Amino acid sequence: MEQPSRKRGPALPVRPGILFKVRRVFGLADSPRAWYEHLLRTLKSKGWTPSRVDGALFYKWSPDGAWEGVMLTHVDDILVTGGSSAIASFEEIGKELGFGSIEKSKFTFCGKNLRKHPSEITVDMHKYHRNLQIPVVSREAREDLGRALNQKELRELRALNGSLQWLVAQLRCDVAFQLCEVQVAKPTVATLLKACSLARDLKGDPDFVLTFRHTNWLEGGLVAVSDAALDNVNSDGSVEEPKLFSQSCYCVLLGGPELVNGKRSVFNVLDFSFRSHKLQRVCRSSHGAETFGVEESLDAAELVRAMVAEARGIDILAPGAHYTVCAVPLTVVTDAKDTFDRVSKDTGFGAQKSLVLTLALLRQLLRRPLTSIRWTDTANMFVDAGTKAMDCSHLRRVLCSGTWSIEYNTEFVKQKVKSRKEPPALLEGGEQLPGEELKAEHRELRRYLENFGSKPGWHWIGSAPKQDHRWQVPAGKEPKRMEVLTFCGSPLASDPEFGPEVANPELAGVNLNHWEKEVTGEGRNWGITHFDNVAAAFLVVFQSVTLEGWSDIMAFVQDAQSTVVGFVYFLLLIVFGAFFLVNVILAIIWDVFLSVPRLRGQQMV
Questions:
Q1: Which of 370, 390, 412 is the C-terminal boundary of a domain?
Q2: Same structural domain for residues 316 and 237?
Q3: Which residues cross the membrane (predicted)?
Q4: Is 408 a member of any domain?
Q5: pLDDT digits (tens, 9 = 90+) for 407-451
Q6: Is the four-CA dihedral 333, 337, 342, 347 of positive or negative sign?
Q7: What is the DSSP code string of 127-180?
């Protein structure tokens, strides 16, 4: 073997003919595999058994086959729960592997905050919500929503999609359809704005918490809830016309015997058992879309069924395990009556022959022990929010409460029946209405008021016609409308004709009666970013010179004044302030520090 030349790498301080074996070290491609093999050997030596379904899952069994503990690993992060023997074994493993720290009852695992309470465990991601980085889309880019993204914007979209994907996969499955719609759409300015809107909504709702309660899972089972929407998305996953593909969503619930039997009961949802996705096959009818959705939900539920069976101590690889795992009851729920009838009854396959094989497969799977399908009312279905753009409050309420019922229950109905309002009573003769009656001589005022219906927007009350304390239009003049002032960092840019909502679409979700809350909120830096006084201006300049969020402040100034003014001002401020002035100050300080030893030496001499 010859040593590499200095052009290819450093020379090794050994004589020729010596062969080296490089061990696996951190940073090499095989280091993760080396760590897993080391962890696997250590756990096996301490009595832990790896799962047959998931290689990162381990169980600890007692000599008589009783369940003692379970361990979940994610690289070098380990989550463990169980009895005293499992905890003692875990501490021994920590001494051998050299754990950096061990936290109990309240800690963060893979970005999720886990809290153990006396009767439940809560999971949230408050910090992750608040730390979402939302890119700023310039006003010029908003003018062409169909334009393809440039390289910078494309990187921002991919980074934002990655952050949202992790959040949805770990916790926020209630917005899975919105994220799926963004991820598969074409990378245009409209897609970037939609992703920013979704991130802004999630950032404003960081209090979403999933609660895991005690359920009798040893005697209970699984419920797979499935729903699908026909022709809801097109070939690239977006919702623009034409729509050819269907969207499906399923959720697998783990609960007690009451839940499996259709009664109201508590359940727990697993992060990998909720999915909203586009069906790969084109469906010719709602019956076809619902049937394919039931097939995929049953397939996902079989995986969870194997894991639950293994946790109960069943050998899922033993001969006949295909029926052994059926000791865990499984119920599939759909709101499609035709799919339920075709699958549960041998009454033919219908006119759509392309579904024959799928229906035959479902009938065969449902003939196994403790495997069934049930129908529920559409108003009782909660996963339909994962198939179409709709209000997700019902889905969010069911997931957060952790309670549901297959049977129709008014507690879980999406739209409650409102009581019919009584019609207003007619005024009796002689009763006077408040205010002044519009008479014939007030025709100009009547015309002015009727004009509100054709020209919506904000109107200045002082611009209305007034004479002798009665409203009228001045001769030769049209009623004027108030133009709302633009505040630095606020979305209140006004349109002189139709009001501020037309000038800025972001105002669609803003309460204009309390706009100061929008300006003084977290998204606007709590109202301290402005140039209204000297102190605030110095604070803004200091923050910009430190290069902390200066681009957002520049965008605020450009919205409030003009694009050119904001660009020129911050260009000069960053170049001369951050790059030149700061370096000059650091050089002066460094020169003073260097002169101190010389002065001390002269004093000693």
A1: 412
A2: yes
A3: 567-594
A4: yes
A5: 888 877 765 444 455 555 555 555 566 667 777 667 667 766 776
A6: positive
A7: HHHHT--PPPPPHHHHT-TTSBP-HHHHHHHHHHHHHHHHHHHHT-GGGHHHHH
What pLDDT is stored for residue 507 in this prediction? 47
Per the structure, the complete domain to which residue 93 belongs is given by 31-100
Residue 91 lies in a domain: yes
For residues 77 and 129, membership in a common domain is answered with: no
Alpha helices in 440-504 (DSSP H): 443-450, 500-503
- Cα dihedral sign, 280-286-292-296: positive
Helix (H) or strand (E) holding 275: strand 265-278
Give yes or no for residue 279 having a pLDDT over 90: no
Q: Is the pLDDT of residue 484 over 60?
A: no
The residue among 244, 224, 194, 158 whose CA lies nearest residue 389 is 194
- Determine the pLDDT at residue 559: 74
Side chain identity at residue 293, one-letter code: G
Q: With 70 as the cut, is the pLDDT of residue 94 above it?
A: yes
Q: Please check the confidence at residue 578 and state whether its pLDDT lies above 50.
A: yes
Residues 168 and 227 in one domain: no
User: Do residues 57 and 112 share a domain?
Assistant: no
Q: Output the six-digit token pair for 37.
A: 């093999």
Q: How far is CA 37 from CA 46, 87, 175, 478, in A?
A: 14, 22, 37, 82
Which of 79-88, 236-245, 316-325, 512-521 has the weakest average pLDDT?
A: 512-521
CATH number, domain with residue 92: 3.30.310
Phi, psi of 210, deg, nearest 5: -100, 135
**Token pair belonging to 339:** 């799919």
